[in-house]
Structure formats: C-alpha cells, structure tokens
Design a protein that fits this description.
heterodimer; A: about 400 residues; alpha/beta; 11 strands; B: about 100 residues; mainly beta; five-stranded mixed barrel; 5 strands; about 35% strand
Chain lengths: ~400, ~100
C-alpha cells in the first residue's frame, strides 16, 4: 500500500485534555475549561503551564448561556496561565476548530513556541427552547431566524433535498445515530454513554421533519484543549505527540437559500481540499475521522464532501458498516456530537482530542488498530464555516 | 439578489436596481418545525422552506398551509403578505409568507 509522502508538520500536539461532557449542574464554563486544561497539563510533566504557555486561543459560541462575554481571560485565569495573552475565537460550532488554526498560525509564524488552544460551552443552564433560540443566532437574523428556521430546521432542509435527489432514507440517517451511540457507550467522557436501537431512533419524536430527536446532537456542557508546539520542541515534552500536517478553512454564503446546492457543504469540501493538498494525502489514506454530526444528515453529507464515498452515497456508506470501528474508515469513534455531546465552542478541539488519543494508542476500547493518519471535520452554523485538520502519528 | 444589497458579491458592481418579482414560485425544499424558539411557539408545528421564484432567485419562507402533509418539492406556491406585526418582540416588520397556489 502506498504510504503518503511525509510532509513537514505545521505544528505538533504534545497534549490534549477533555472535561467530562454532560449536564454539569452547578459548574461554570470557567471550571469546565480548567478541568480540561488540568488533564492536558498532567500529560506533560516537564511543562510548567504558567511559565511555558505563551498564548491561548479559546473557542466559545455565545455569551447568552451564562450572560458572560470576554470569557478567554476568565478561562486563562482559571487554567492558571496568566498573563499569557488569551483571545476568544467565535465561529459558531466551528469556534475551536478556528481557534486551533489560530494556534497553528502562531506556532508556524514563530511568534510563540507553546500555545494552548481549546473551547468551552456551558449550555444546560438554559431551558431547551432558549437554547434553540441561542443556537439560532448563528443563522441569519432577518431571513432565517425571522422565518422560524431553527438549526434542526436548516439541516432538515438539506435532508429533504438529499432524500429527494438521492433516495437517502430516514433509516440511513438513523444508522448514523445507532453507530455513534454505540461508540459513545465506550467513551467514559461522553454525555450519553448508551446504545440506541434503530427502532428507538425511528420512533423518537419529530424535531424538524425528517429529523427526529435521535437525529440531533445533544445540548451539552463541556470543554476541550490541546497544547501545541513546534515539531522540533515536541520531543522535549512528550513521547506521545501527534503532528498536524494539514489545515483548511473555508466559508460559504451565510444563508442556505443563497447556495447552488443543498446536498453538499461547500465550505467543508473546500477546506478538505486545502488540508488534503497541504498534507499530501488523499481520502483513502485516512485511517480514522471525527466529523461534525450535529445532525445525522450532516455526517452523511460530510462523508461525501470529504471523499470517503461518492456524492449521494453517504447513506449507503454508513449502512454498509464502513464507518464502524473495525470498518474501512471508522468515523466518530468518540461517539461524535451525537452521543459524546456538542458543547458547541468545545467541539472542534474535542474532535482533535479524540484523534490525539487514537494516534497515540490511548483510545482504550475505541482504539482503531494501526491508525496513522486522522482527519477532523468541523462545521460552523449551517455550513458557512468549514474547518478540516489532518493529523499524523509521530 | 436576495437579500437585496448595495454591492453584488459576485462582481462587486454597485450598479444595482430594484426588480419587481412575480408572485409565483416553486418549493425547492421544506421542513416541518416541531421544536421552535419561544417566539414561534404559538404557531408550532409550522412549515418552512426555500422557494425559487420564476426569475430564479430563491427566498427562505414560512409556508402557510392547513395541510402540512401535502407539501412536496416542486409544488407551485405564491407569495402572501402579512401587514400586521405579531405580538412578540420579533419578527416585527410587515413580512412575506408563501401559500399554495389557488
């Protein structure tokens, strides 16, 4: 089998941390972030976080959940890395995917030698209708929000066309949920560590037809973080490091109605092409991937956009078992946004946290054998932002 | 261009003018929202979709129908206007809807 050419890494991940995901009553976002940071610090004993971490980029979607903006200095303070410059990055659900890119650029430019990137969201202290409203702020105010288009609604608009054009079925979407819950049941950090049956998914109540409750990701509290350094410095701190060899981000029109096609998310497709080119790898070289399954249809579209299967075949792809652990490209071994949970600002770097575990052989019961190349696919909003990263084991 | 704007995002020309659209369009896609933000609670479940006008531009819209199960991609719709603002804080401008062609 052809192994890809080993390109020079952009930056190197020497550690990763994840808070427990779930309904974390009585815990503030700052505490969740400190929990994730502490785990990352514990993995690298030779690192003195207060002294060595030179900057932080922290993804967070909304100040409405906790009535708290300007959260980056709070998170940095609670993680004990003051006075390092800390900046909040906001790109809706791709906030920490974009924060990771900021960290890569900081390392690659030579401005800083060690940076912390991550994300956090504390969502469950608002009731579900309020959360639905807060999430909807990441869609267009005058045209989408005013027309009552919720996030499940926007992805349902894509699902309806996908079903119409390609014959994708509700059962195929349900298969994504069944698979991801099966993986999530193996992840002690996941919000919902419970398997679900096809029947339970199909019988769950409608949220935005054709999407049902079990087609939707979870409203979750959580935080994630990564410590980045240059490929040269990595060895000094850890034997368990992972190289970032590709990074892509692209944007599309904000509103769905302005797009030519609703069966593809062009921003993610462009971001993937950029990342594949940079990393000099192809879709078939990917051993394991975390994709943005905010709704089951989004994973189906992601598999097509990333080139894991042909356009329109995403439903059949999941049904075939190809994306199961043990399949040709295991997808969302963490449980994904569907079962691990989707604390929106934390999601991008939480995906990379899982891939860090996979590529360093620390994924326990979810471990994909001999994983060398991994891909993370993170969407913002209804796909106005797409962020893709490609990682390689050391 | 919908939404209307001062600069064309494709060619960056600012020589734009208002065009009167026909009232007819076709349904491109739709969903029926069952879990809604508080502002829309009173009308839930409701249908929203994207409508392609005869001129080719597309509009997102609420589809007013008493028969939600009769919605189909490709069906003919016509625009409808609601001059009255609703009692909630937003939406609060005179606005458009789509309904089945009579």
């Amino acid at each position: 089998m052809r192994r890809p050419r080993r390109v020079k890494p952009l930056a190197t991940i020497i550690s990763a941390g994840l808070s427990k995901f779930g309904r974390r009553e009585g815990v503030y976002a700052r505490e969740l972030f400190a929990e994730a940071a502490l785990e990352a610090f514990h993995r690298v004993e030779d690192l003195d976080p207060g002294k060595d971490i030179k900057a932080a980029f922290i993804g967070q979607m909304s100040e409405a959940y906790e009535h708290q903006a300007h959260d980056a200095p709070i998170a940095a303070s609670w993680a004990g890395i003051l006075p390092a410059p800390a900046t909040r990055i906001e790109n809706a659900c791709a906030s920490s995917g974009s924060a990771l890119r900021c960290g890569i650029m900081a390392i690659k430019s030579g401005l800083y030698d060690i940076v912390l990137v991550g994300g956090v969201e504390k969502m469950t202290n608002q009731p579900t209708p309020e959360v639905t409203g807060i999430l909807a702020t990441a869609s267009d105010y005058p045209f989408e929000q005013w027309n009552g288009m919720t996030f499940p609604g926007l992805f349902a608009l894509m699902a309806t066309v996908h079903m119409h054009e390609y014959g994708t079925t509700e059962e195929q979407m349900a298969a994504v949920a069944v698979k991801n819950h099966k993986n999530g049941a193996l992840n002690p950090k996941a919000h919902m560590q419970k398997e679900v049956t096809m029947d339970e998914v199909m019988r769950s109540r409608t949220v935005a037809w054709p999407l049902k409750l079990y087609d939707c990701s979870l409203i979750t509290d959580g935080a994630s973080c990564l410590i980045l350094t240059s490929p040269k410095l990595a060895k000094k701190f850890s034997d368990n490091y992972v190289h970032i060899i590709g990074s892509g981000q692209s944007q599309d029109t904000f509103c769905l109605h302005e797009r030519d096609s609703l069966t593809t998310i062009n921003a993610a497709k462009q971001a993937a092409q950029e990342a594949y080119k940079m990393a000099d790898v192809k879709a078939k070289d990917i051993d394991v991937a975390e994709v943005h399954d905010c709704f089951t249809i989004a994973e189906i579209i992601a598999c097509e956009d990333l080139g894991f299967c042909r356009p329109g075949q995403g439903g059949k792809f999941v049904e075939s078992g190809a994306s199961n652990i043990g399949g040709t490209i295991p997808i969302n071994t963490s449980g994904g946004l569907k079962s691990k949970g989707h604390p929106v600002g934390a999601t991008g770097t939480a995906q990379v946290h899982e891939l860090y575990l996979q590529l360093t052989g620390q994924a326990d019961r979810r471990q994909v054998a001999d994983a060398e190349i991994a891909l993370a696919h993170n969407l913002g909003g209804s796909g106005a932002t797409g962020v893709v990263h490609i990682l390689r084991s050391a | 261009m919908v939404p209307p704007r001062a600069i064309c995002p494709k060619c960056r020309s600012s020589r734009v003018e208002w065009v009167q659209l026909s009232t007819q369009g076709k349904l491109v896609t739709y969903t029926i929202v069952h879990v809604s933000p508080p502002q829309f609670k009173h009308m839930t479940p409701y249908a929203v979709g994207i409508v392609e006008m005869e001129e080719g531009v597309k509009l997102p819209s609420i589809i007013r129908t008493s028969r939600l199960e009769s919605l189909k991609i490709g069906m003919e719709l016509e625009v409808d206007f609601s001059p009255k603002s609703q009692e909630t804080s937003w939406p609060h401008w005179p606005r458009y809807f789509f309904k089945e062609t009579e």
